[in-house]
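Hi all, posting the design record for the shared folder.

TITLE: backbone redesign
STEP: 1 of 1
STRUCTURE INPUT:
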């Protein structure tokens, strides 16, 4: 099994941008958020669990996930958010392990917005946090997602663990402020990880 490395960071921190740099170095990236969406729509066991927990309405007649229904019923109720996470996170964890076992690089990256929050760090060897000042994150997100309001962005930020806490929990921190170069920071971590294997 390769070394399992998580890469996280709050909204707009630049974790996808940093993950792209690792992928240019040949490191395979597992996108937990994309994969979670896929599994919710396609994994038989997970679909059954979601149906049992939230009702038949969670899927349409063709078996496609009813995102609108789920968003409406789940995201206003913290207990239901916990419930859906308790079903999706283990499914993603298992899927990630299967995927990682098929890779033949010294290490792989699991990119996820919530790693510490979901306890995903427990099954990873190391975690990288991409860290940027709050103001920069908000302005980057608003530039990238013009459909979002500043209020919505702040709401998402409030659901995530504060950056300072993630920096303390992480094994590596990549600073992505506008005056810091990313590639040298990535290369340094890459060298350290490949020398561990
Ligand atoms: P999310 O959690 O919302 O997926 P993210 O942490 O993956 O966000 P990115 O999508 O990588 O963040 O970056 C957010 C936006 O900021 C993107 O439009 C990206 O191009 C831009 N960005 C990231 N880093 C930098 C940088 N160093 N300089 C300029 N723009 C940047």
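Okay, here is what came back for every position:
SEQUENCE:
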């Amino acid at each position: 099994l390769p070394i399992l490395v998580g890469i996280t960071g709050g909204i707009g921190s630049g974790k996808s941008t940093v993950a792209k740099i690792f992928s240019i170095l040949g490191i395979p990236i597992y996108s937990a958020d994309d994969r979670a969406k896929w599994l919710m729509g396609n994994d038989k066991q997970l679909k059954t669990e979601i149906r049992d927990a939230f009702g038949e309405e969670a899927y349409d007649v063709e078996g496609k996930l009813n995102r609108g229904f789920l968003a409406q019923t789940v995201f206003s109720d913290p207990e239901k958010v916990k419930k859906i996470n308790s079903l999706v996170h283990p499914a993603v964890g298992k899927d990630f392990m299967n995927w990682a076992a098929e890779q033949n690089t010294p290490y792989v990256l699991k990119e996820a917005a919530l790693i510490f929050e979901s306890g995903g760090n427990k099954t990873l060897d190391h975690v990288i946090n991409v860290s940027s000042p709050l103001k920069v994150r908000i302005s980057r997100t608003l530039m990238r997602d013009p459909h979002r309001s500043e209020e919505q962005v702040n709401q998402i930020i409030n659901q995530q663990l504060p950056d300072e806490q993630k920096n303390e929990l992480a094994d590596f921190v990549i600073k992505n402020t506008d005056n810091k170069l990313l590639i040298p920071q990535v290369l340094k971590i890459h060298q350290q990880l490949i020398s561990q294997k």
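COMMENT: The pocket of adenosine-5'-triphosphate is lined by residues 9, 11-17, 113, 140-141, 144, 176, 178 (CB under 6 Å).
Let me know if anyone wants the other runs.
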